[in-house]
Amino acid sequence: QVCHGLRTPQLPIWLCSLSGRHGVLFGTDSRLLSNWKTERVFHLYFYNGQWEQTKTAHLTIDTHSHPWEEDPHEDPSSPGKRRPPLEMAIRTKWAGATVSWNGTEPFF
């Protein structure tokens, strides 16, 4: 039998499989589970346990970014438009969100 805490997590957590690697994306604000108003600007953390990741990545997610400020004529596959798979995974829940890596070099 699965305990109550595993069926209903107290903090937001996602297990991710990106480019054949596994990791954990999680938040420390329990309001993300129950209050949509907290989804404006919030923090998530990512850890994959790989040798190239020396510390947990601290990400700031802004769901009210300004996508109209991007150049609409730029090719989506150009280097300026490519995003790490982790950012694309985050955007499956928060479409159009901007992701700040807060000084950490994006990986994956």
UniProtKB/TrEMBL annotation:
Regions of biased composition (Basic and acidic residues) lie at 63-76
Q: Where is this region: Disordered?
A: 63-85
Pfam families, alphabetized: MINDY-3_4_CD
Catalysed reactions, semicolon-separated: Thiol-dependent hydrolysis of ester, thioester, amide, peptide and isopeptide bonds formed by the C-terminal Gly of ubiquitin (a 76-residue protein attached to proteins as an intracellular targeting signal)
Q: What class of enzyme is it?
A: hydrolase
Task: Tell whether Protease is among the UniProt keywords.
Answer: yes
Enzyme Commission number(s):
3.4.19.12
Q: Which residues form a coiled coil?
A: none
Question: Which keywords does UniProt give here?
Answer: Hydrolase, Protease, Thiol protease, Ubl conjugation pathway
Q: Which InterPro entries match?
A: MINDY-3/4_CD, MINY3/4
This protein's source sits in the domain of life called Eukaryota
Family affiliation: Belongs to the MINDY deubiquitinase family. FAM188 subfamily.
Write down what this protein is called: Ubiquitin carboxyl-terminal hydrolase MINDY
Q: What is the lineage of its organism?
A: Eukaryota, Metazoa, Chordata, Craniata, Vertebrata
Recorded name of the encoding gene: Mindy4b_0
